């Protein structure tokens, strides 16, 4: 059995399960108890008026059910005497928990009761009124944010789990701007943002927001550009010169003189080669 209940803001009654399901009471007695507890404090209701409202139960059926409530302490009649007027009157008290002689006055209720322990007769809801959630401040679209939002929409277009609306993409755009600034391609961004998704995605926006922050690639260093060569001597040109010939080839400056290697260097190289050949069992070549 599936039970369906609704949340009510006003005109509802809270009853304990112990009373509604009391096995000592018949269904008729439980129904009358629920009806009486739903009335405002001070309402006038007795066996006669209950029988008139529910003719199918009849006066005898209502009286029998009320006797059950009296027997088990839910329906109590008290006689009071007013010393000032000398009048004697009988008051009926209906409780949602059994009252037995000698237990004293019933404790104050908590749910649905006023500090005096009686029902709140004011036309005020027992539950706080629902307040509309605060809407996030919309992002002001700029050309840079528009490009970032377009990047996100291109990336998620091939991944249904990460479907975004245009508004959501624009809200995430500030986190995608650094990706554009660092020259991340669509292919690289798609690989970083859409790979390894969980089987079920409950919030595409939350996942993308996290990955845009956590998987931002590091800044790339500028590639080393090869320096152009002189068209005549093939020496490297200055970094600021892209074509033409070097300054020495134009005759505007002398060509730098390359110092020859010391005489001892070739001799030492020849000695090292000879030593290596002897270590491998190879006879050194004649000088």
Task: Outline the structure in words.
The protein has 287 residues and is mainly alpha-helical. The chain has helices at residues 17-20, 27-37, 47-53, 58-71, 143-156, 166-181, 186-194, 204-214, 247-250, 264-279; strands at residues 75-81, 88-94. Helix 5 (143-156) packs across helix 6. The chain starts with 16 loop residues before the first helix and ends in an 8-residue tail after the last helix. 11% of the residues are buried.
SSE inventory with pairings:
Elements: H1 17-20, H2 27-37, H3 47-53, H4 58-71, E1 75-81, E2 88-94, H5 143-156, H6 166-181, H7 186-194, H8 204-214, H9 247-250, H10 264-279
Antiparallel strand pairs: 1-2
Helix pairs in contact: 2-4, 3-4, 5-6, 5-7, 6-8
From the N-terminal CA to the C-terminal CA, the straight-line distance is: 108 Å
**From the alpha-carbon coordinates, what is the Rg to the nearest angstrom?**
47 Å
> Mean pLDDT, as a whole number?
79
H and E string: HHHHEEHHHHHH
Largest sheet: 2 strands, antiparallel
- Structural classification: mainly alpha
Q: Tell me, what is the CATH class of the domain at 17-94?
A: Mainly Alpha
Helix content: 25-40%
| CATH fold annotation of the domain at 17-94 | Arc Repressor Mutant, subunit A
The total strand number stands at: 2
The assembly state of the depicted protein chains is single chain
Count of alpha/pi helices:
10
Poorly predicted regions are: 112-116
Q: What share of residues are in beta strands? A: under 5%
Overall geometry: rod-shaped
Second rung of CATH, namely the architecture of the domain at 17-94: Orthogonal Bundle
How are the strands of the biggest sheet laid out side by side? 1-2
């Amino acid at each position: 059995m599936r039970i369906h209940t609704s949340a009510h803001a006003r005109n509802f009654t809270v009853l304990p399960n112990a009373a509604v399901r009391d096995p000592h009471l018949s269904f008729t007695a439980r129904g009358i108890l629920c009806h009486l507890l739903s009335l405002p404090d001070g309402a006038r209701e007795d066996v006669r008026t209950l029988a008139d409202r529910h003719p199918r139960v009849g006066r005898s059926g209502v009286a029998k059910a009320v006797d059950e409530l009296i027997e088990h302490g839910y329906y109590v009649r008290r006689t009071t005497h007013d010393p000032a007027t000398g009048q004697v009157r009988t008051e009926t008290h209906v409780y949602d928990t059994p009252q037995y002689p000698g237990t004293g006055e019933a404790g104050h209720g908590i749910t649905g009761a006023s500090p005096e322990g009686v029902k709140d007769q004011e036309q005020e809801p027992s539950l706080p009124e629902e307040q509309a959630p605060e809407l996030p401040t919309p992002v002001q679209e700029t050309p840079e944010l528009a490009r970032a939002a377009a990047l996100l929409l291109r990336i998620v277009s091939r991944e249904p789990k990460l479907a975004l609306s245009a508004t959501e993409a624009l809200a995430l755009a500030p986190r995608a701007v650094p990706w554009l600034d660092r020259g991340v391609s669509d292919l690289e961004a798609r690989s970083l943002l859409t790979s390894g998704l969980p089987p079920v995605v409950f919030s595409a926006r939350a996942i993308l927001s996290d990955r845009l922050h956590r998987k931002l690639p590091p800044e790339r260093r500028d590639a080393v550009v090869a320096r152009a060569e002189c068209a005549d001597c093939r020496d490297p040109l200055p970094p600021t010169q892209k074509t033409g010939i070097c300054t020495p080839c134009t005759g505007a400056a002398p060509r730098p003189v390359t110092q020859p290697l010391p005489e001892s260097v070739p001799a030492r190289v020849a000695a090292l080669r000879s030593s290596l050949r002897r270590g491998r069992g190879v006879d050194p070549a004649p000088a």
